[in-house]
């Protein structure tokens, strides 16, 4: 399984996680872990998920999430997990 | 498992600190294109480039999208054309024809630079190498995406002073033929000593004959990330400072390694090397000079600059070596004046001079890079500058290079504008005393004593 990480940064408001999770469910993307925090008044969230069972290509999912983020007024993006493990782990 | 803070920190590097993959460079051997018929040779070269590199841009974009990493340039480096064209090219015009084909192929596959209009007369010069070198001015004037390099010496062979002399004239002619654009031709022409075979960075990139048929080399870049990391160790001692740079270099290199492996897998071309170089761009927050100033220098060029650069260069290598088993190319800090806004400022106010830059090249990865000098600088003076740099490289067993631009019609204090990543630069003062008699001697400076290791 190749994991991906969805991250969101922006001003906190009602329904950010809800909207993202509905999108993921629609695209058949399974959520493995969620964590969130507020830093300097900004909402920070990361969500580890598995995109392998989605019918869409990764780049289509990435576009979808970026657009959804824009609608919610936050910055949302999805990246392959490797980028974080390779940079942050020996 | 990865935690939220690590995700935030990594994405901050991309979004706020200008961390990026500077280039994915496809190294391509043209040895199997060689033919004694010029037309056939041109067709072979064009076909090989457009076939092998057809997916380079697409794959670059895919990786960019999936990992969220900006990949700034996709480039191609080729077997030195002086070797490839030796059988077919009887005149310098023949070499210019090849240059035009390379430029066309680069545009067809969408790469912004293609390197390898190169000759390697480190010890002696073949007829073909001489013709190629003489073709450079016309080649640079007839193309936009082509880069040219000439290796005029090495620690093993000494310095070919005939080639050094010739390059002084060639640089002047190139400046003259591209004078309408601030002599921009010279910004794509570099003279090297100890040129590496696997360098992914332009203008000095070529695909050496020691390499495989095709390889993927990657150059990362993150001066902004290093600079930001230094903010956390303000006022601390040098051991702490060095640790901090090393850790950051590790992360940056791992990024390069990941992108290189991924590009190699998707293109089905073997992975070559990761080049660790810290390369600046004219953007604010993407500067080598800012790092040195952050270490405690009022301006780059002040006493202490060489020491600061030496420690930066060394720590970048130490962190990078741990992160990848395939480190190559130039791997150090670049100091191209016109591509670093803080170096431009320092040069403008007189804090940074060519002489200080020369000292700095003894401890960093390349040499006198992207320096604009007065248009009326004599060819022999440019040869003298090249000889000095080559001597530093030869004696210290490191790569050195000269990429100076004698901007036609401009004098000290004027500005030259090259555009894009090449940036802009103030015309810098060059020592006025002559070295003509020295350069005119001709011949070769023998290899240094420590080259006789065997």
Q: Your description of this structure?
A:
The complex is a heterodimer of chains A (90) and B (454). With 90 residues, chain A is an alpha+beta fold. In chain A, 37% of the residues lie in helices and 39% in strands. Chain A has three helices and four strands; from the N terminus they run E-H-E-E-H-E-H. A four-stranded antiparallel beta sheet of chain A has the order 2-3-1-4, with helices on both faces. The longest helix of chain A is centred in the last third of the chain and has 15 residues, at 58-72. Chain A is globular, with a radius of gyration of 13 Å. In chain A, 32% of the residues are buried. Chain B is an alpha/beta fold and 454 residues long. Chain B is built from 15 helices and 13 strands. In chain B, strands 1, 2, 3, 4, 5, 6, 7, 8, 9, 10 and 13 form an eleven-stranded mixed beta sheet that branches. A two-stranded antiparallel ribbon of chain B has the order 11-12. In chain B, helix 3 crosses helix 9, helix 5 (92-109) crosses helix 6 (127-142) and helix 6 packs parallel to helix 7. Chain B is globular, with a radius of gyration of 21 Å. The interface between A and B is medium-sized, with 26 and 22 residues.
What's the layout of helices and strands?
The complex is a heterodimer of chains A (90) and B (454).
Chain A: E1 3-11, H1 16-26, E2 30-39, E3 42-50, H2 58-72, E4 74-80, H3 82-88
Antiparallel strand pairs in A: 1-3, 1-4, 2-3
Chain B: H1 4-15, E1 20-28, H2 38-52, H3 56-67, E2 71-78, H4 81-84, H5 92-109, E3 113-119, H6 127-142, E4 146-154, E5 158-160, H7 161-177, E6 189-193, E7 214-221, H8 223-231, H9 238-267, E8 271-275, H10 288-295, H11 305-323, H12 341-348, H13 354-360, E9 368-374, H14 379-396, E10 400-407, E11 415-417, E12 424-426, H15 436-440, E13 444-445
Parallel strand pairs in B: 1-2, 2-3, 3-4, 4-6, 7-8, 9-10
Antiparallel strand pairs in B: 1-7, 4-5, 5-13, 6-10, 11-12
